[in-house]
Amino acid sequence: MTLEFAVRIAEILLGIALLQQSLEFLRGIGFEKRIAIFRVLLSVLLIAGVYPVWVESLLLVTSILLIRRFLGPYNGGSDTMSILLLLCLWGSHVAPSRLWQEVALGYGALQLTLSYFQAGWVKLINKEWRSGKALAEVFSFSAYPVSESLRALRKRNQLLFVASWCVIIGELLFPLALLNITALMVALLFTACFHLANAILFGLNRFFWSWLAAYPIIIWFQERLPDLL
Predict the structure, then answer these.
(1) Residue 112 belongs to some domain of the structure
(2) How far apart, in Å, are the Cα atoms of 191 and each of 53, 77, 171, 174?
(3) pLDDT tens per residue across span 85-125
(4) Alpha carbon distance, N-terminus to C-terminus of the chain
(5) What is the SS3 assignment for 142?
(6) Is residue 228 situated within a structural domain?
(7) Residue 132's closest CA among 110, 154, 152, 108?
(8) How far apart are CA 185 and CA 83, in angstroms?
(9) Structural domain count of the chain
(10) What is the pTM of this model?
(11) Nearest to 38 by CA among 11, 65, 12, 13
């Protein structure tokens, strides 16, 4: 995968992520609604590939305005990942040389890798995650599950134990997937299914598109990595 193709696909996916986030703000009032309308337009332009440098510059400015408005990322990790990837893509356009373009995208790929490893490490050192109790509590007390029948899963202790360890091991081993393109594709399929499940079961729909948008970058990075070692 070429750098230019990875950037274009990532911009399309990120545009979808930002469009989704912006549409949610249309229900707001005043400042938030005006910013949302502007970001909807910018997101569409990003998807279409129209003047990406200027569009991404304006999206970064509006992101800073929203961070200031809400005293931090509005939706935590998903907004943080979106802004990080947006900054990396913008950097790849304004970089003075090919080397710095690769540095900008490589940074995004490494941050994605670390995000999974760190999440796995936090779960590993948490005894409630190791026992499956953390997932049981999510199904018991979360306001997000779409039906009461899903809450019955909190009683499936063995299933939750296995699911917990699948997530922990999958996240911790994610960095090793960079060693082989087949392993990386399997890892990305696993993590994409993980994010999709979170969106369906718990309503964490922002995370799906925000993380998926970085996948073309890490695929490019894995193919480029042997030349860097």
Answers:
(1) yes
(2) 30, 15, 8, 9
(3) 999 999 999 999 999 999 999 999 999 999 999 999 999 99
(4) 18
(5) coil
(6) no
(7) 154
(8) 24
(9) 1
(10) 0.90
(11) 65
